[in-house]
């Protein structure tokens, strides 16, 4: 820990002598816009390098985005009976819930089981688990589930969980690339302070 602190001081304050550190400058670096700007800049650079473009959101801002739609998949890659309309959602912590649409492609009566699966995001902590069976009547083209997103005041990186479709009778995962969707929970909390 001491070595990490020394490296931090050398990197940010250009000295490893604590008695030479200007406390006002240190405060500006650790809790002011300087630190936040650097974090935003690093995230933007990372997004540019990886091809991801993600908006930085304010505390309490409600943001719900759809990134990858199943309609862009080749028909051979899709399940012929049920599927999701969107394969990747982003939602801010403050959004409260996310609505995920399931489509009944044959418009016939039937059932499909829908279950959330932990990724980096953990059920009960970051979101509330869903495990339900959707009943489609003949002619029903789509239904949806709502997943509750939990908001907290702790900074953490953006986290993912997944929603998977299963055969309601056998419990087997449905085949096809449109039977699993990813939900990214975007954190809206600023990082904490570094104190000496």
**Strands across the major sheet, in which order?**
1-3-9-8-5-6
Report the total helices.
3
- The termini sit apart by 12 Å
The CATH class label of the largest domain is Mainly Beta
Named CATH topology of the largest domain: Immunoglobulin-like
Number of DSSP strands? 9
Mean pLDDT: 79
| Total number of distinct structural domains | 2
Structure commentary:
With 196 residues, the chain is α+β, with helices and mostly antiparallel strands. It has 2 domains: 2-50, no CATH class; 64-186, CalX-beta domain (Immunoglobulin-like). It has 3 helices and 9 strands, in the order αααβββββββββ. The strands form 2 sheets. A 6-stranded mixed β-sheet has the order 1-3-9-8-5-6, with no helix packed on it. A 3-stranded antiparallel β-sheet has the order 2-4-7, with no helix packed on it. Helix 2 (23-31) crosses helix 3 (33-50). It is elongated and about 75 Å long.
